[in-house]
Here is the input.
Amino acid sequence: MKAIYIPQLLKASEKKQEIIVDEWISSLESLTPVRGSIQLRHGGTFLEVAAIAETIVTLTCDRCLKQYNHKLSINPSELIWLDKETEAEKDYPLEREVSLEELTESLPPTGYFEPETWLYEQLCLAMPLKQLCSKNCQRPQPLSQEQQEKNLIDGRWSILESLKGKLSTDN
Here is the structure.
């Protein structure tokens, strides 16, 4: 997906643009391409962004560790403020105080909007926090004491184990 030059949206009819999405997002490991659409509207001091998209991703169950496919569907909308003081890349220190006003998305009014990056972020936010392959998923049953002991003994030591048994019976 190509980056959208923000001032160009002002020249579009009704200051809107729709992007049809049917492609792979390079940062997202999915089984199917992301399909849907993104609508952009320039509101003078803000960009209104909305999307409807879906794809299928492979997740790992938190309980049984099996892999399963999950349909990821999103329908987000967001206002991104256009701020002249916003620079594309600021060199922030690793730790710093952040005011409440800084907790908003903003872009420079003469900059670019990256639809692929925005869509990737929205899909990542939609990933389930608790990844379970089914409602009835059971955690693996612990091994019995006998099975645990059997698994702890390395087969290469079996000859020494048999010698140990013979030595203890000879005494």
